[in-house]
Amino acid sequence: MASKTSRNLLIAGVTAAAVAVGAYFALGAGHESAPQSTFVLLDGSRQTTQDLKGRVTLVNFWATSCVTCVGEMPKMIATYDKYHDKGFQTLAVAMSYDPPSYVVNYTQTRKLPFKVALDNTGAVAKAWGDVQLTPTTYLLNKHGEIVKRYVGEPDFAELHQLIEKLLAEA
C-alpha cells in the first residue's frame, strides 16, 4: 500500500515538474541572453549587444568566401526589407579571416541595406559560441535573448514566421 502511494506521489511530482518546465519555455522564458559584445561597423562606429535590445534582430556571421553566405544574402536583404519598418534589424558580422577590403567591396556592390561589422580579432565570433562555420545566424527577441540559432542557410519561410511572432510580442 505504501509503495503504491509513493509511486503515485512520484508520478504526480514528475508530472508537475514537466508542466512547470513546459510553461517556463512556452511563456518565452528560458532563452539565453545574447553575449555581451562590441561590434565595429564598417563606418568605424561601434554598437554593443545592449544596443540591439528593443528590436527583433538577426545577427549573421558570414564571409565573402563562403558560397552559402553569398547565396543566402539576397534572401537576407529581402527579409530585412520586408520587416525593417516593423522593428526588425539585421547585423552581418564578417569573420576575422575575411579581408576588410573584400567586405567593404561586397557591401557596396551588393548595396547591403543593413549594418555590417568586421570581427577583425575573432573576439565576437568567440563570444557567440566560438562560431567557426559560416553562415551561422542568431535570431534575437526584443529583450536581446537568443531565440533560434541556424548553422547553414535558414529555412526562410520558418524564419519569417518566427520573426512575425517575435515582432507581435510586447
Provide a brief overview of the structure.
With 170 residues, this protein is α+β, with helices and mostly antiparallel strands. It is 41% helix and 23% strand. The chain has 2 domains: 1-30; 33-168, Glutaredoxin (3-Layer(aba) Sandwich), CATH 3.40.30.
How would you describe the overall organization of this protein?
The protein has 170 residues and is α+β, with helices and mostly antiparallel strands. It folds into 2 domains: 1-30; 33-168, Glutaredoxin (3-Layer(aba) Sandwich), CATH 3.40.30.10. It contains 5 helices and 8 strands, in the order αββββαβαβαββα. It has helices spanning 2-26, 67-83, 100-109, 123-127, 156-168; strands at residues 32-33, 38-41, 46-48, 56-62, 88-94, 115-118, 136-140, 145-151. An 8-stranded mixed β-sheet has the order 1-8-7-4-5-6-2-3. The termini are far apart. InterPro entries: Redoxin (IPR013740), Thioredoxin-like_sf (IPR036249), Thioredoxin_domain (IPR013766), Thioredoxin_ResA/DsbE_sf (IPR050553). This is TlpA family protein disulfide reductase. Residues 28-168 form the Thioredoxin domain.
Rg calculated over all Cα atoms: 20 Å
Order of helices and strands: HEEEEHEHEHEEH
- Overall geometry: globular
| The CATH superfamily title of the largest domain | Glutaredoxin
Q: What is the CATH fold-level name of the largest domain?
A: Glutaredoxin
Structural class: alpha+beta
Uncertain stretches: 12-29
Average pLDDT works out at 88
Counted by DSSP, the helix tally is 5
The CATH level-2 architecture of the largest domain is identified as 3-Layer(aba) Sandwich
CATH class category name of the largest domain = Alpha Beta
The largest pleated sheet is described as:
8 strands, mixed
Q: Alpha-carbon distance between the termini? A: 51 Å
What share of the residues does DSSP label as strand, in percent?
A: 15-25%
> How many E-type strands?
8
The figure for the number of domains is: 2
Helix fraction, binned, reads 40-55%
Main-sheet strand order equals: 1-8-7-4-5-6-2-3
